[in-house]
Amino acid sequence: MKITVETIRAMKSRGEKIAALTAYDFPTAKLLDECGVPIIFVGDSLGMVTLGYPDTTHVTMADMEHHVRAAARAKPNALLGADLPFKSYETISDAVANAKKLTAAGAEFLKAEGGREILPQIKAVIAEKIPVMGHLGMLPQHVLEEGGKYHVKGKIEAEHQRLIDDAKLLQDAGVFAIVLELVTPPVAEEISKSISIPTIGIGSGENCDGQILVTNDLIGTFPWFTPRFVKPLANCAAEIKTAVTSWKNSVQQNRK
Length: 256
Ligand code: KIV
Known about the structure:
By secondary structure, the chain is of the alpha/beta class.
C-alpha cells in the first residue's frame, strides 16, 4: 500500500516507530522498498557518499534532480522525499521554484534545514501543497560556518530552548515531520514529547519517533568514514573487494 504523509503522521499517533533510509538511485530505492522501509530519502548526503564532495554545500539542484529521478523510477510504495540543496531556498521564490522542480522529478516531499529563519520559505512551499519535513540540530548545509565540524546541539540552555521553540514553530508552519540531527538525547526526547508530528532522529538517541540513516553507513559501502553513532550491520565494501579481487585474479590467471 502506498505510504503517504498521513500514514507517517498516523504512525506517531499509534506509537509505531518510523524507519527511514537514504537512496540515491533506482536499485537502492527498489531494495529498500522491497524491505518495507516507509520513508526513502534522496538526501544531499549523496554529495559525500556518491559524488565524492567533501560536504553537502557542493550539491546542486541538477545533482538532486538527477538522483531524485533515478530513485523515483523504482516507483516505491514508500514515501519518497528529497533535500532542497544548499542555497536553493534562500528566497521564497527560489524555494517554491526549486520545490516544484524536485516534485516534478518525483519527490513526494521536501526537506529544508533550519527553523525560524526559513519559516517564510517553508510556509510558501506548503501553500503550494508540497509537503515539507523540517530539519533541526546540526545542519550539514551550515558545516562551513561551524568550522567544518559536525557539533552536537542542545548542550547549552540557549540552544536547548531554541530547538524546542523552533520545533513548535515548524509544526505550526505545517511541516509533517522533523529530522533531529545530532541533538542531545534528552532534548530530542523532550521535543518528541512536546509536538504532535513525528521526529526522525539521526545521532539523537533512541527516543525520537523514528530514525533515519544514510544507507551507505548502515551497509558499509562508504568505509572511509562512518559517523560514530552508526553501528554498520553489513560490510558490503569488503564483499565487493573480495568478489572483485577474485574475479580480477581469475581473469589474470585465465581460469574459470
Ligand atoms: O542528507 C541526508 O541524507 C539527510 C538525512 C540523513 C537526514 O539529511
